[in-house]
Amino acid sequence: MQTVESTQRIALKNILFATDFSPCSSAALPYAFALARKYEATLHAAYVMPNDADLLFMTPENWPTAMVEEDRRIKLGIEDLEQKLQGLSHKLLTPKGKVVDALIQIIEERDIDLLVLGTHGRSGFERLFLGSVAEEIFRRAPCPVLSVGPHASAKLNDGSEFKNILFATDFSEESLAALPYAISLAEEDQAQLSLLHVVEEPAAGIVDLDAFKSSLLFRLDELVPPEAELWCHPESLLEFGHQFSRPAERIVETAANHQADLIVLGVRPVLGKFGLATHMASTTAEILTWAACPVLTVRGGGSK
Description:
By secondary structure, this protein is α/β, with parallel strands linked by helices. It has two domains: 14-148, Rossmann fold (3-Layer(aba) Sandwich), CATH 3.40.50; 164-299, HUPs (Rossmann fold, 3-Layer(aba) Sandwich), CATH 3.40.50. Helix content is 35%, strand content 18%. The two termini are 22 Å apart.
């Protein structure tokens, strides 16, 4: 099985922080700020302005009042953000349009290396960073996405260091796309790196269970080059799921048990223009919702 070169380091020169000025969205700012400062990167902070389509759910007589209130909220949000970013190389952006399309355009035009966002922020126009919108972002974004979910904000971590990193994989090409980031971040912070595979436990008597476990653990061990043991002390973990325990639950539980402060996942890209239109909550989306730490997703098949 192919391993990752230990000398492959991840460079972050441009970081994009997406906000809607809500408390949940703002919970991701300390991570964006700390990472930009640590990597001496430029932080691009973006609020996507609502367009006329966002007003369709209102009656016409409410449009003027809603626009005045929204303009006031945006002005206060920008002023507050500008104050918080003092002393850091940064740019404030206010594009207009659909959230996902606007963010993708910024990523491509400004050569963004990492997108940071809170996954449960919402504005007065119900422009959500959750559910299908968040999933569309991390499946379409051509760069890794660091998502800070609703249960991660309470964790006492300023985002400057990750000491316990959990990389979960199903051995697919898409999931392994995130492995270089897990290894590089572990090396950067001299962190403990845990590699996890969740599999359905075979029925008794069908296979040699001990041999089955040993084979999977060996595959995990092979993923990391031997020299990485000098700085990240990798450990391989095998968890069994069953009909009452979905993979997402096992990953979240394992992260909590190992006090992980970052989960790293490779994700499949969106298929087709309307690939997410009927998509229900995926394993990754469930992890984002329930994890007690941020989740870094790296899109397979075309990530930067």
